[in-house]
Design a protein that fits this description.
This protein is 50% helix and 7% strand. The protein contains 17 helices and nine strands. Strands 1-2-7-4-3 form a five-stranded mixed β-sheet. Strands 5-6 form a two-stranded antiparallel sheet. It has a two-stranded antiparallel sheet with strand order 8-9. A hairpin with a 2-residue loop joins strand 1 and strand 2. The longest helix has 32 residues. The radius of gyration is 24 Å and the shape is globular. It starts with a helix and ends in an 11-residue tail after the last strand.
């Protein structure tokens, strides 16, 4: 027994000495000491970006930690973010993929999780030249406007008859279940992902992953087949993404795996993040009635009360755009961005970043940096009247959509859709908290995961403020 204890202690001390020697000689960023085998896996709080912001107060704006033997580096201010995303853009443009992400991306055959290289350049070109062009987005505008108006009608109907439940078709329910389950699986820090020889221990997680993969693949192929059959019957090519991808598949030499991966990129990156951003903005607006009233005064002045909004009105609603920007500053939907991986050795903040390291940009911390923002915890859209900070990847103080080679290709669409949804919600309704609920009662904590759902879903009460005929959804 004593011999075993001596052996374990010796191994532990040798491990610590090796890590100390490696950190000092390699000049890695400082950080918490890792445990043997597991690294710092169990030191990290569930809401990682908040945990990392706290660690930055201890170790400095750049620090490192280990998941198993995998080195991770986190940067927490705008200067270091610029070094990662601009100065070292190409060196740090790869992706680290866990097993769940390998599955959903078909081994990096999509856009979001692809390593930087010829495949990434090809699918990025497809997105920029085909899927997110002004012409394509304009063609899709009637669909977006129709769906937003349908949302308003559903809210109006439910506010009058709250017992009515909105019916979702079978495919809609399946889509929702797949996305929800995928976020649950992908958001877990699984020891087996970072210590591969322990993966067999996590049998239940492995089985759940395989079942999710089969379910996703089956659902996607059904949708693709439906669209293929519809095109053969009508001879028409519709403007939405599914048909666009299928008709461009041969021209861009895309495999089925790439088409499926890209479709799920559009769904996960375009659906959840928009909904999350709108919910956080609405939470801030019910907590700050002054701001809500000011938005509605702008809407009444520019739109009036005799018609509904269309997307061409958005550019005229400057204060609403400040509200969107302020909400994204405080509540970026992907607060740690998606992890970059070093394809080559790099240097950030004077420290070495070895090839193969994961690099995280704490966007949540950038938006709350007291060295940059006046009263950063205050929801104050007027700050952008003083200085119109870019949020499309050119100003490293505000990076809700990333920057550099990995910047989100759908940035303009996302901003437009969020602003349109908020405009309709605030034009049609006054929003308040339920009776008995105070502003202080609104839970502004995030759920753990890659994207920032509210820990407690927002409950608010809508009161119509326009003539009744403007709540009717005309097909």
């Amino acid at each position: 027994m004593a011999l075993s204890l001596v052996l374990y202690v010796s191994i532990f001390l040798i491990f610590l000495c090796y890590k100390l020697y490696h950190r000092l000689t390699a000049k890695l960023p400082p950080g918490p000491w890792p445990w043997p085998v597991i690294g710092n896996l169990f030191d990290i709080a569930p809401v990682r970006f908040r945990c990392f912001a706290e660690w930055a107060q201890i170790y400095g704006p750049i620090f490192s930690f280990y998941l198993g033997s995998q080195l991770n580096v986190v940067v927490n201010n705008a200067e270091l973010a610029k070094e990662v995303l601009k100065d070292n853009d190409q060196n740090l443009a790869n992706r680290f993929r866990t097993k769940p992400l390998d599955n959903v991306s078909k081994n990096g055959m999509d856009l979001i999780w692809a390593d930087y290289g010829p495949h990434y350049v090809k699918v990025r070109k497809l997105c920029n030249l085909e899927l997110f062009t002004p012409k394509r987005l304009e063609a899709l505008r009637p669909i977006r406007e129709d769906e937003v108006i349908a949302m308003v009608e559903n809210i109006f109907r439910d506010s009058n008859k709250p017992c009515n439940k909105v019916k979702v078709d079978e495919q809609g329910e399946e889509l929702k279940a797949i996305v929800t389950n995928g976020i649950k699986i992908g958001g877990k820090l699984n020891l087996g992902e970072f210590v591969p020889w322990l993966r067999w221990v996590f049998k239940d997680d492995n089985n759940a992953l395989e079942a999710q993969d089969r379910r996703l693949d089956k659902f996607t192929r059904i949708i693709m087949e439906e669209h293929t059959i519809a095109r053969k019957k009508t001879g028409e090519t519709k403007q939405h993404f599914v048909d666009a991808l299928l008709t461009l598949q041969k021209e861009y030499d895309l495999s089925d795996d790439t088409v499926i991966g890209l479709l799920w990129d559009m769904i996960t990156a375009g659906m959840d993040t928009v909904a999350i951003t709108v919910e956080w903005a609405m939470a801030e607006l019910v907590k700050n009635s002054r701001v809500q009233q000011k938005v509605q005064e702008e809407l009444d002045r520019i739109i009036g009360s005799n018609r509904t909004i269309n997307e061409s009105d958005i550019s005229k609603l400057s204060y609403l755009q400040y509200v969107v920007k302020e909400s994204l500053r405080l509540h970026p939907p992907t607060p740690l961005m998606l992890p970059h991986m070093a394809g080559n050795n790099a240097k950030v903040g004077g420290y070495n970043i070895p090839k193969g390291s994961m690099v995280h940009v704490n966007v949540w911390a950038l938006g709350r940096d007291t060295n940059i923002w006046e009263d950063p915890l205050q929801f104050w859209p007027e700050r952008f009247m003083k200085e119109d900070v870019d949020m499309k990847g050119h100003d490293y103080r505000l990076l809700p959509f990333g920057s550099g080679r990995r910047v989100c290709p759908g940035t303009n669409l996302a901003i437009n859709l969020v602003t349109s949804m908020l405009a309709h919600l605030l034009h049609h309704f006054v929003w308040s908290l339920p009776i008995g609920v105070e502003v202080e009662d609104v839970d502004m904590m995030e759920s753990p995961g890659t994207v920032t759902y509210m820990q407690t879903p927002l409950h608010v009460v809508p009161t119509p403020r326009l003539p009744l005929h403007l709540y009717t959804h005309v097909q």
